[in-house]
Design brief:
Number of helices: 11
CATH topology of the largest domain: Aminopeptidase
Distance between the termini: 52 Å
Oligomer: single chain
CATH class of the largest domain: Alpha Beta
């Protein structure tokens, strides 16, 4: 079976259109927008590639010169390679740049075609003398493909809000214990006391995008960084059902958060503000998202990874998996042992986190 490595996604669009049924972020439109709007320039560390298999399967992947924008942290692995005089970079990564979300990493008609394509990419990793191949935030239904081929699984824990047929935000609050319900009401009341109001916009204009991008950029500027994503990138997302939530104070926009709905799932990914106000992030990115999810009858709301503070606000812990093919057997054995040990700790944390959920029957 033959395959071709391409430097862009364009000739694989038909495969994406025919077989992609997952999240919006691993769709052709999202990945191609990253490529076409200068988000993946030479400074970003992401170099676009796509394996196109003759069986009608495609794997978007990236040559990485660093580990920035991945959110599965392997700096310790890179340092170990360095200490032993070996090169960890460049490596290959199957992921959505700058966007940590579970999704399909192999686009194809069936499991056999996806397995064959992954074998081809492993062979390319080894023959081209890359150190490793990494599939990050793999959706549940594709995990067995990687396990069957001997990839090392690495676990992590993030948080998602589950809709238990809530009729309203108050209905959701009523399912919480008294202490947590009062705390969330107090946070929302504080925002309301500042006369901050919220506007949900789905028909997004050029001015809306300009205002949103200003707030988004500020979150990076205060850390002395440039934004991962360009202004033109966001304008290309009009077909992915985005909604911007703007926060208004005294008639002026002061903050914004961006949401995407795909089928019955809601995703929150980017936000920013020009005023550091207590609880504004929680309100913009979590509580407004929960209201959208309830109103649109979404089954779950994924607000992004990390953040133990989400637990007491009703977001439940979930395990996610990344998979790693390490070419050098010596490093492979060491990294496998590390991931096995780390995974035990993650599972223990996951179990303990379930005990801290704010629901009455937790």
């Amino acid at each position: 079976m033959s395959f071709l490595i391409e430097k862009n996604l364009n000739t694989s669009k038909k495969i994406f259109d025919a077989h992609h049924t997952g999240d919006p972020f691993s769709s052709f439109d999202f990945l191609n927008a990253l490529q076409e709007t200068n988000c993946l320039d030479s400074d970003s560390g992401w170099v676009t590639n796509c394996l196109k298999h003759e069986n009608g399967t495609a794997i978007p992947f990236y040559e990485k010169l660093n580990s920035q924008g991945e959110f599965v942290f392997d700096y310790a692995w890179a340092n170990t390679y360095y200490r032993y005089g070996q090169a960890y970079y460049p490596k290959l990564v199957m992921s959505v740049p700058f966007t940590p979300v579970d999704g399909c990493r192999i686009i194809g008609p069936n499991d056999k075609s996806r397995n064959d394509a992954l074998k081809s990419l492993v062979n390319h990793t080894e023959s081209a003398e890359y150190s490793s191949l990494h599939a990050l935030f793999v959706e549940d239904k594709q995990k067995d493909i990687f396990k069957d081929q001997g990839f090392i699984e690495r676990l992590d824990c993030n948080y998602k809000w589950k809709n238990k047929s809530y009729a309203s935000f108050d209905d959701f609050l009523n399912q919480l214990s008294s202490r947590h319900r009062k705390n969330m009401k107090k946070e929302r009341a504080y925002i309301k006391s500042l006369n901050i109001e919220f506007e949900h916009i789905s028909e997004i204009t050029e001015q809306d995008w300009q205002d949103f991008y200003l707030f988004y950029s500020i979150t990076y500027a205060i850390r002395g960084q440039r934004p991962y994503l360009t202004a033109s990138f966001f304008r290309e997302l009009k077909d992915l059902n985005p909604t911007i939530v703007f926060a208004h104070k005294k008639g002026q926009r002061i903050a914004a958060a961006l949401f995407f709905q795909y089928k019955d799932k809601l995703f929150g990914r980017y936000w920013g503000t020009k005023e550091p106000i207590n609880f504004l992030h929680f309100e913009c990115c979590y509580y407004q998202g929960i209201e959208i999810a309830i109103n649109n009858k979404c089954s779950e709301f994924d607000p992004g990874i990390q953040g133990h503070h989400k637990l007491k606000r009703g977001f439940e812990p979930v395990l996610n998996s990344s998979f790693h093919w390490i070419v050098d057997e010596r490093f492979r054995d060491a990294i496998k042992k590390y991931c096995e040990s780390e995974s035990k700790q993650i599972i223990e944390y996951f179990k303990q986190s379930q005990e801290y959920l704010p629901f009455k029957n937790a």
